[in-house]
Amino acid sequence: MPFAASAAFLGMFAIAGLPPFSIFMSEFTVLSAGFKGGFYYSSSVILLFLAIIFGALVYHFSGMLYGKKPAEMLKSKNPSE
User: Fold this and answer.
1) Spatial contact of 64 and 11, defined as CB atoms under 8 Å apart
2) For residue 51, what is the enclosing H or E element?
3) What average pLDDT does the segment 13-22 reach?
């Protein structure tokens, strides 16, 4: 399962729009056009919200993927139970 967790974490990076993934180009294009066009306040707000969204995604995904198992979960020997 560590491989699946790492793959899900990489998927989260793709959803968040980090540089090696294609959605980063659209975010970068919008922000660079905003700053070049003189829309500094709007572009800064978008950049702030992107940082908040990225931090929230990392926080929730890391807890979900690498956190401790809840105490309420029962141990079973058969995965189909």
Assistant:
1) no
2) helix 40-66
3) 82
Residue type, 20: P
**Of residues 75 and 79, more confidently modeled:** 75
* Half-sphere exposure in the Cβ direction for 36 (13 Å, CA): 6
Only one residue has tokens 């989260």, namely 12
User: Is residue 33 classed as helix, strand or coil in its secondary structure?
Assistant: helix
pLDDT at 80: 63
Higher pLDDT, 62 or 70: 62
Structure-token pair, residue 20: 């090696």
Residues 6+ apart with CB under 8 A from 61: 8, 9, 12
